[in-house]
Amino acid sequence: MYEDRNLPHAESTAGNIALSGVSQSAERDKDWHDNVNTLVMRNVMLWGSVFVSCGLIYLLVKLVA
To answer: Transmembrane ranges (predicted)?
Structure first.
């Protein structure tokens, strides 16, 4: 009954599944970090442009007044 089992194959398959799970997890982490970095950079650019715009408006008002 158990003669048909190919245990080395089953073990290597389990190892491949575990390794693919690790690589997928690492890939997901990389994607998550890329998304976070993109959001951070987007926020930095947005707030930077807001501060620059406010600064320019302030200087323009000071110059005219």
So the answer is: 44-61
